[in-house]
DNA sequence: AATAACTTTGAAAACGATTTCACTAATGGT
DNA sequence: ACCATTAGTGAAATCGTTTTCAAAGTTATT
C-alpha cells in the first residue's frame, strides 16, 4: 500500500508539502504541486481516509436508524438520503433497529465509538432522555418520527393533518363508523394521526368506539388479521383509516376473498402513497407522504452539521401531506 | 472525549495494560483488570474505532453495491445482509450505483481510501478486468449478478434454470408464443434466464420471435409500456416471461384496464416472488428467489474473509430457484 | 536601506489506539 | 539450588495522515 511517505520520497519533498497539495492549500509552488500530483498518479496513491479521520476528527459517515429496510417507506427514504450523501462524498450506514430499544442503543453506540459521525433517527423507540446523552458524540437529528420533549432538529410531516384530512374524506364519502389502525409506539408524533382522526370525527358528531382501534398494524399480514377482527365485531366499521398502504392492501386482499364490497361496505384508506397503491385493484386511496423531500431535507441538514456549517438547534421543519383519492374509498 | 490515556492515568497503569484489558488478552492480573474495567465504567470510556482501525488495519465496514434501494429485491437483500452484519459488529454501507458504470467505480474507490474493508457487488456494470484491480485493497465478492470471466467468490442463483422452469410452465399451460423481458446488462449471468427460456422453447419446438424480446424492463412503468408494445404487434404473444414481479404487475395493471383476459389471452409470469405477488389480483405466478439466503451466504462469506478466516478463492455457490404458481398463468 | 508582509518549506508533534520488546517476578520441574 | 518456563508489566514504536511552528526566502512599503 502506498502512503504519503512514498510520494514524499519519490518527489524528494516533505510529507507536509504533499499533504498541502492533496488538500489544495495555498502556499505551494506551482512546480512542486505539479511534481507531487504526477508522483501521486504514478504511484496510484490515494489518501487513507482512516488516518485522515483520526487526525482531523472529521467523520463522513452517517448512520440512518430505521425499523427495517424491507418496509418500502424506509427503503425509499434511505434511497433518497444515500443519493444526496454520495454526491457530497458522505457515506450512509443502514441501521435496522427492528423496533427494538436495545438495538437502537447499540447503533447509537456506534456514534460513541466514532464509527459514524452523526445519526439520523427515522424511527425512535427510546425516550429523549436516553437518546440525548449521545449528542455529545455527534449530531443527532430526527426524521419522520420523534419522541416527546425532543430537543433536536426535526424533519417531519404534519401527522395530525394526515389523520384529519383522511378521516374527513371518509366522512364525506358517507362513512360514519371509521376504524383506526396504528403501528408501533403510541408515544411518538406518529400518534397524532389519531388525534387528527378524533378531531375530524368530533367535528361531525361521530363516535370512535374503543373496539374500532387496532394496534400493531405494521404490514400486510397485520392488515389481513385486522380485516377479520373487524368483521367479527357486532358493530362493524364501514371505513378504516390504516397506518400504511401495506396494511390497507392486506385488508383489501381479504375483503376481495370474502366478497366484501369496497368501498360501499368497507372503505379503506391507506397511508404513504407507495407505488403499489395505484397498481392494485382496487387502487388504494391514501395520504401521500413526500418521503423523498423529507429524506433530502434531513440528509442535507446532517451534512451541513457535520461540515460545521451550522449548529444543531431545536427546530421543527414540517412538510405538507395531501390526499390521493382512488378506488378504495 | 476520554481516551485510553485517561483510563491509564486514573488507574495509574500503562496504556498497554488498559489495552490488554479492553482486548481480553491473557497476562493481566485479576486485580488490575478489575480496576481498569471500573475506571472505564467510571469515565464512560469507549475505544475510538478509528484509531483502532488505523493501527490494526482491520476495517469492519462492508460496502454493498446495488442499483437502487427502492427496488424491493435489493432492499430485501440488504436487509438480510445488514441483520447478520450487525450481529457480528460489522457495518453495512449502502452504495446505489443507479446502474451507472462511473458510480460503480466511485464506490469501488472507497475501498482504496479504506472507507470500507470489503465490497459485495449485487449488481455489476463494469467488466471484470476493470473491477479486479480493486481486489488489492480488500475482498470483493459477487452476489446475484456477475460479469463474465469473474475470478472471485460468487453467490448466485441458477438463472438458467429459472428461465427454463418458468417457460416450461407457460408451455404446459398451453401457451406457445412466449415473450421475454430482460433488464439491465445483457452481459452478466442474469442473461442466462434467456438461454433457459430458449432451451425450454427449443425442446418443445417453439420459436421465439425477435419482436417478442423486450429490453429495459426494470419496473412497473416499463411493464406498462411493454404491455402496449406487445398488444401493438401483429403477432401477439400469449404468454410473457418477465424480469421481475414489478414488471409483471405493470403488465397486469394495463391488462385489467384494457380487459385482456389473464391468463387465457395473456399469461404473465413474474420473477422474484415478492410479497405483493400473492396480494394483488390476479395474484402473480412467479419464480421464487431465495433472496434472504443469498444475502446471508454472501455477508457471512465476506465477514469471514475480513476476519481473515478464509482466503478469497474463485468459487460459485449456486442456490436453487423454484416456481410458485398462482393466478396469472 | 530598513522594515513589514507575504510565500514557501520541512521537522516534529499530534490524533488514539495496538503491539513489540525488554525486563522482572513468580512458578514448576529436576 | 538451579534452570526453564510462564505471568505480568510499561516504554516506546507504529499506523498514515494533518497541522503547528520556526525558519528562510521573496516582495512590497516606507
TrEMBL record, chains A, B:
Pfam family, one: LacI
SMART domains, sorted: HTH_LACI
InterPro entries assigned to the protein according to its UniProt record, in alphabetical order: HTH_LacI, LacI/GalR-like_sensor, Lambda_DNA-bd_dom_sf, Peripla_BP_I
Sorted UniProt keywords: DNA-binding, Transcription, Transcription regulation
Segments forming domain HTH lacI-type: 2-56
GO molecular function: DNA-binding transcription factor activity; transcription cis-regulatory region binding
Gene3D superfamilies: 3.40.50.2300, lambda repressor-like DNA-binding domains
Domain of life: Bacteria
Designated name of the protein: LacI family transcriptional regulator
Native organism: Pullulanibacillus pueri
Gene, per the UniProt record: cytR
Amino acid at each position: 500500500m502506498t502512503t504519503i511517505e512514498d510520494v514524499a520520497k519519490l518527489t524528494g519533498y516533505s510529507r507536509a508539502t504533499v499533504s498541502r497539495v492533496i488538500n489544495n492549500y495555498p502556499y505551494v509552488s506551482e512546480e512542486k504541486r505539479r511534481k507531487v500530483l504526477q508522483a501521486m498518479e504514478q504511484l496510484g496513491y490515494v489518501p487513507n481516509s482512516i488516518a485522515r479521520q483520526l487526525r482531523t476528527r472529521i467523520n463522513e459517515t452517517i448512520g440512518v436508524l430505521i425499523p427495517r429496510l424491507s418496509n418500502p417507506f424506509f427503503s425509499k427514504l434511505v434511497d433518497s438520503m444515500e443519493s444526496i450523501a454520495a454526491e457530497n462524498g458522505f457515506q450512509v450506514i443502514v441501521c435496522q433497529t427492528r423496533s427494538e430499544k436495545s438495538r437502537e442503543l447499540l447503533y447509537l453506540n456506534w456514534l460513541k465509538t466514532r464509527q459514524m459521525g452523526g445519526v439520523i433517527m427515522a424511527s425512535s423507540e427510546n425516550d429523549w432522555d436516553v437518546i440525548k446523552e449521545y449528542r455529545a458524540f455527534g449530531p443527532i437529528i430526527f426524521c419522520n418520527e420523534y419522541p416527546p420533549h425532543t430537543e433536536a432538529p426535526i424533519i417531519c410531516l404534519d401527522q395530525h393533518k394526515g389523520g384529519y384530512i383522511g378521516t374527513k374524506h371518509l366522512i364525506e364519502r358517507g362513512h360514519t363508523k371509521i376504524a383506526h389502525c396504528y403501528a408501533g409506539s403510541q408515544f411518538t408524533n406518529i400518534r397524532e394521526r389519531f388525534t387528527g382522526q378524533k378531531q375530524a370525527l368530533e367535528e361531525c358528531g361521530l363516535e370512535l368506539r374503543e373496539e374500532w382501534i387496532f394496534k400493531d398494524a405494521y404490514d400486510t399480514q397485520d392488515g389481513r388479521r385486522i380485516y377479520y377482527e373487524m368483521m367479527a365485531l357486532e358493530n362493524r366499521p364501514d371505513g378504516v383509516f390504516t397506518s400504511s398502504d401495506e396494511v390497507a392492501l392486506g385488508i383489501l386482499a381479504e375483503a376481495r376473498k370474502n366478497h366484501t364490497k369496497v368501498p360501499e361496505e368497507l372503505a379503506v384508506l391507506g397511508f404513504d402513497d407507495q407505488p403499489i397503491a395505484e397498481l392494485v385493484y382496487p387502487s388504494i386511496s391514501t395520504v401521500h407522504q413526500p418521503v423523498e423531500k423529507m429524506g433530502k431535507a434531513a440528509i442535507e441538514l446532517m451534512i451541513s452539521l457535520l461540515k460545521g456549517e451550522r449548529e444543531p438547534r431545536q427546530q421543527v421543519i414540517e412538510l405538507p401531506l395531501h390526499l390521493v383519492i382512488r378506488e378504495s374509498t
